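Can't paste images in this forum, so I'm doing it all in text. The chain is below; anyone willing to post the predicted structure tokens underneath?
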Amino acid sequence: QMHLVESGGGLVQAGGSLRLSCAASGRTFSAYTISAYAMGWFRQAPGKEREFVATISWSGSSTYHAHSVKGRFTISRDNANNTLFLQMTSLKPEDTAVYYCAAGPRTSWSETDYDNWGQGTQVTVSS
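Text version of the structure:
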């Protein structure tokens, strides 16, 4: 199974920026590199259910962002380096959450369509 590891989280003031990364590791033959998969970012705030943030097709040609982050967050990928990104700008306190990357067969807003998940990285936005 492909192993996903998120990084780049931390504490930032409102209005600031962060760039999250998600690297795939484990076996390196094509079925276990992110280029074979659609990828997504989800987040879970304390006391709330996990929610969709953004998704990107395997080629990177199609992206979709949740309304709450559209215009502030941008999902992208670098298949050559087996890495997914989430550029976050104009951060708000309500963006505070654990952010997860996930891999699946197609772009989707539904977490049930993803079968490989990372452990998450904490993002905290102070007011």
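The chain has a mean pLDDT of 92. The chain is about 0% helix and 50% strand.
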